[in-house]
Amino acid sequence: MARSLPHRIACLAFFAALTNTASAALDIGDPVPKFTANAALGGKTFRYSLAEALAKGPVVVYFFPAADSSDCSIEAHAFAEAIDQFAALGASVIGVSADDIGTLSKFSVKSCQSRFPVASDESKAVIQGFDALMQTRPDFANRLSYVIAPDGKVAYYYQNLNPDKHVERMLNAVKALPKTTAASK
What we know:
This protein is an alpha/beta fold. Helix content is 40%, strand content 20%. It has 7 helices and 7 strands, in the order αββαβαβαβαββαα. Helix 3 (70-88) runs parallel beside helix 6. The longest helix is centred in the first third of the chain and has 19 residues, at 4-22. 37% of the residues are buried.
């Protein structure tokens, strides 16, 4: 029994180290990079500015690996279905991936249901700036969602390749923001 306890502790330490390495993300209170990027909404492309969006209220910036993959489509659909709830709280949503703008233009209609924009970051500069690069597949963004307060700082983040809880967690985090922050427009 004494021999298995050190083994268990060593295993737990190993897995904790893996978890910390794999879950690199900007921390709560960290300032975020104010980016501009080509984005698509309802199939139309435009230039998205995070600074302009933050001037209107909190922003959910969610990173996803690849448009039109099953899980990314599920997540985009869930954000589209909840967009009115975010708007009622004074928040906006932007999805970001390394996909090209042509792919995202179609995705913005099909999976995002023309309800919120998705931005193209082919250079991965934004993805890297938010520590959202997938470590095991560096050509892709990790599935990582942030709530950014209007002051440009991380209020909450959630990282999980499973798309099921991102919308729920982001909504709860926006609801938890101080009323003056969440309602400022």
